[in-house]
Amino acid sequence: MPELFGTNGVRGIANEDLTPQLVLDLTRSLSTYIEEGPIAIARDTRETGDMLKRAAVSGIQSVGLDVVDLGVVPSPNLQYYVKESEAKSGVIITASHNPSEYNGVKMVDSDGVEYNKSELEEMEEIYFDGKYDKASWDCPGRVRETNPIYDYIREIRDLINEELISEKKFKVVVDPGNGAGCYVTPYLLREIGCKVITLNSQPDGNFPAREPEPLPENLGDLAETVRAVGADLGIAHDGDADRATFVDNRGNSHMGDDSLALLFKKMLKDREGDKVVTPVSSGNKVVDAIRDEGGEVIWTKVGSTVVAHKMIELGEDCACGGEENGGVIFPDFQYCRDGLLAASRLIELLAEKEKSFYELTDELSDYKSVKTKIKVENKKEVMKKVLDKVEKMEVDANYIDGAKIFYEDKWLLIRPSGTEPVIRVFTEAKKEKEAKKLAEEGLSLIEETMED
């Protein structure tokens, strides 16, 4: 794995780990690597976003490449713009689901897909050598601004049955969590015929209402609002809106694997391919949904970039891909997570099936899952010791990404985060009590290892 880049770019506490100098040098490395522009740039709503974006722009200009500034937009909006325009690359200043004190830098190639491991390693070599190209004083790169939102909305509308959705007159509550989705999702859903009620839809990089990660424990206000107004659906995004999770019409908040399973089933029916790509953090609920439609599961390491590149490799054989955190990748649009298209297609599914989200999720296999984490500063060292212990336990396990231990009708995954100094624990079981017990066992194993 590259030294600087995690599963989704470079992240850290802004102005401490992720300084303007680091961002400037990262974009100098990118610009030197690709040699020609323009490079599109965007950010989410974080307080430090403007500061770090200015550093990124300066780095690009100093190499002599032009910049197209898209302003504050969702990550998939920038990625669509890069794919469809003359841009040779894109830079997104975002820390996605991380808390407000974090920020990050994510870089995408001319096709809108995040760079692969070998490409990032070449950029890192430039960074550590400090051998950047440099423009002469009279020809730095130029900067221009454009608004990419309208073309992006239009393309999503072209991909769905807008007439059918409009007939149903769905009432939806949209909670962008004060992130970049504020600028797009409410407007998109109104245009396809939904009655939209917004919550936390004013941009605010402090994320005052809830944490950016759209987990059920952070969506109490959304669930309460759905019940209060009698909405058909609640939609929540993370900070850059590349993910979406949902609240059903009864006010129940759902983990991302519910919508992922339903959208996988839909795409297997709508497309000719029979392969679905998902990381080892996905569980039996998702696997059962894929196999029910005659699909084949292709496992990867955790990280949307890994999933996207495997999907590209599979080509037309791939129907869909995504992660259990609510990030779905639709190959008929673009090879990146897209929370706005996921929300639109889930609403389309409700219209097609003439069933509520509650009813559709009730038809899925009934598994209970738990996600938790523990802070570990020396996570690589600790994780290596955890893996050694698991191997000595002589259990059924795979080591694609961390250690996933299989039991009858349940499993435990322990893996290091690619974006934070934590080790994550995922579990799934038929009963919630069993899933929680398994998570406690996973945390205990990590804690014991830290004490060794």
TrEMBL record:
It comes from the Archaea. Residues 373-441 form the Alpha-D-phosphohexomutase C-terminal domain. Its cofactor is Mg(2+). Residues 3-130, 151-251, 256-364 form the Alpha-D-phosphohexomutase alpha/beta/alpha domain. GO terms for biological process: carbohydrate metabolic process. PANTHER family: PHOSPHOMANNOMUTASE. Belongs to the phosphohexose mutase family. This is Phosphomannomutase. It comes from Methanohalarchaeum thermophilum.
